[in-house]
Amino acid sequence: MKNLLNRGPSAHVWKTGVPFIWLTGSALALCLLMVIGLVALVLYHGTGFFWPSDIEAVVLKDGRKALGQRWDKQEIPTSNRTGSGQFRIQLKVGNRDVYGSDFQWIDESDIQSTDYPGDAVVFERREWGNFYGFIEALYEGETRVSNTWDVLQAQLYETRERHEQIREIEKDAIGDLNRQIESLRLKKREIELGGGDADEIDAIDRESRSYWEAYEQLADELAQLRSANEIYRVDVRLIGGEVRQIATADIVRAYRPNQLGILGKSGVYCERIGEFLFDEPRESNTEGGIFPAIFGTVMMVFLMSLAAVPFGILAALYLREYARQGILVRGIRIAVNNLAGVPSIVFGMFGLGFFVYGIGGSIDQFFFSEALPTPTYGTGGILWASLTLALLTVPVMIVSAEEALSAVPSDVRAGSLALGATKLQTILRVVLPGALPGILTGIILVIARGAGEVAPLMITGVVKLAPSLPVDGIWPFFHLERKFMHLGFHIYDVGFQSPNVEAARPMVYTTTLLLMGIVLALNLVAILVRNRLRKRVGGATF
User: Fold this and answer.
1) What is the distance between the alpha carbons of residues 185 and 193, in angstroms, rounded to a whole number?
2) Rounded distance, CA 465 to CA 484, Å?
3) Which residue among 4, 133, 307, 462 is the one 20 to 30 A from 408 at the CA level?
4) DSSP label at 462?
5) Taking a C-beta distance cutoff of 8 angstroms, is the pair 239, 66 a contact?
6) Are strands 143-145 and 83-92 parallel, antiparallel or unpaired?
7) Buried b (16+ CB within 10 A) or exposed e, 431-448
8) What is the distance between the alpha carbons of residues 480 and 381, in angstroms, rounded to a whole number?
9) Is residue 418 predicted with pLDDT exceeding 70?
């Protein structure tokens, strides 16, 4: 005791635990700062991508010229990796089919003058990215059109309408014909495999020919719409004087950012955000929208939760309420905890072998033999990907649900049994309502874990571009065998597999921001439900 007193006030401070409180508080503050910094970085790069920045016309001292939107600015490093005090700017000059690259680095010391011409135009194209230049003339066929800008905007609107008509015909009418023709082909093959008569096969052939005649009529209608889109062409002069011609059918939108005020730029900004959220991707996923990826992500999380949550809760109920505690149960708990730490790619390989090749291949053999060797369920799809992620997340659900069940006081159970309730009635009416807030916490963890996983999906059904959504208006409405798009895989594909990574980098940030928002929204819904249940059942007691 004397030795402890002789150590002075420092020993007393350490004994009170105050330094450890400051240490843990500092660690929490550091973690929060890192999270806030990450979110701020994604917000900065993601939200600014859609803003129509001004177009700069740069004249260099050697007489060369460049036209584009400022993309980045960096300090020029020296040989010893120290700052030189001089900077270079990166212009997005677009016109990839002309220059071979979307970007150009220019040293500020080489710039003679910079101007912002009001008549400079940004053409967002369906292919080859943006085009920057000045409108020389607009042609309808071989006739030059006056009042060029107004006519161009009107024609772009009509072109978009015709593109929508073309897409509806291709997806709905022609898609329905293709399904009917394929159904007849499979029916014919089934009859042939079963040794059917020739008259039935002839009837199928006649019906198939009628579908092909309807297909030819739709093809002619498509050809007329496409030719109507190609009537108008615009001549665009580059900053160097060269003139290039662009068909209005290849232009998504055209605007003059240097002439737009805040309201005008805000209109373009909102239009581009709407395109990003509700349209399909184009240009190798680096342009356009990501609606199929949003839909696929939400549906996959929903299917995964439907599979993981009930099984996780049932397993936790058995381990906590019914199983005799002993070595076997402890071993099962250890195994469940270890499964939560298995790399996700291992689950992906298991899903490929068990679900896709095992169960899916057996389904094809028994129910879709006429379609073989083309697989129906024996290939990757959203069902198998969801079940694979359910296996990945069910250990988390089991552990969380079991902790929630153990938090319900044993006195409550004993009181229910003493009043004459059966074991099942006690679990359904007392234990589960009391544990529900904790179970919802487990669901939140499952959603957060499953929504961000990518590696298992790459093996079990996710694709770069899905031609059809897993849900549509065609019977049976839910097509769980179809492949799907996912926001996490979209980020990987655009960021690392894109042929033009530099131009696609903002799309990576915007998609990341959207994925974070979806996960946050799903979690917020679960948290609100949990808080309501906690108030209802008096969660503070448990």
Assistant:
1) 12
2) 8
3) 307
4) B
5) yes
6) unpaired
7) bbbbbbbbbbbbbbbbbb
8) 7
9) yes
Contact, 280 vs 288, CB < 8 A? yes
Q: 12 pLDDT exceeds 80?
A: no
Question: Is the distance from CB of 478 to CB of 383 less than 8 angstroms?
Answer: no
The alpha-helical segments, DSSP class H, found in 432-500 are 432-451, 455-460, 487-496
327 pLDDT more than 70: yes
Cα separation, 66 vs 47, in Å, equals: 26
Residue 283's pLDDT band (cuts 50, 70, 90): confident
Q: What's at 144, amino acid-wise?
A: R
Give the per-residue pLDDT at 540. 41
Q: What is the pLDDT of residue 4?
A: 45
> What SS3 string covers 60-80?
ECCCCEEEEEEEEEEEEECCC
Alpha helix locations (H) across 132-287?
148-168, 174-193, 198-229, 262-278
Res. 86: pLDDT tops 80 = yes
The burial of 378, by beta-carbon neighbours within 10 Å (0-12 exposed, 13-18 middle, 19 or more buried), is given as buried
Amino acid identity, residue 161? E
What sign for the dihedral angle of Cα 377, 382, 385, 391? negative
R_g of the chain computed on alpha carbons: 31
- What's the whole-model pTM score? 0.88
Q: pLDDT digits over 452-500, tens only?
A: 889 999 999 999 988 788 988 777 888 999 999 999 999 998 888 877 7
More confident residue, 215 or 1: 215
Would you place residue 542 in the very low, low, confident or very high pLDDT band (cuts 50, 70, 90)?
Answer: very low
Q: Write the single-letter amino acid at 181.
A: I
**Residue 466's beta-bridge partner residues?**
none
pLDDT band at 76 (very low <50, low <70, confident <90, very high): confident
What's the chain's length in residues? 542
Angle (CA) 84-86-89 rounded to 5° is 130
Side chain identity at 281, as an amino acid letter?
A: P
The Cα diameter of the chain in Å comes to 110
275, pLDDT greater than 50 = yes
The token pair at 346 is: 């291992």
d(CA 45, CA 521): 21
Q: Does the pLDDT value for residue 5 go beyond 60?
A: no
Q: Which long-range contacts (CB under 8 A, 24 or more apart) does 12-21 make?
A: none
Q: What are phi and psi of 418, to 5 degrees?
A: -65, -30
Q: Is the CA virtual torsion 480, 485, 488, 493 positive or negative?
A: positive
Average pLDDT, the chain: 87
Q: For residues 230 and 403, give the distance between their C-alpha atoms in angstroms, rounded to a whole number.
A: 65
C-alpha of 374 from chain center: 28
Residue 514, both tokens? 């959207």
Where do runs of H (alpha helix) occur along 7-144?
9-16, 18-47, 96-99
Tokens 């039935």, residue?
200
Residues in Cβ contact with 169 at an 8 Å cutoff, skipping those fewer than 6 apart: 218, 221, 222, 225
Provide the token pair at 424.
């099942």
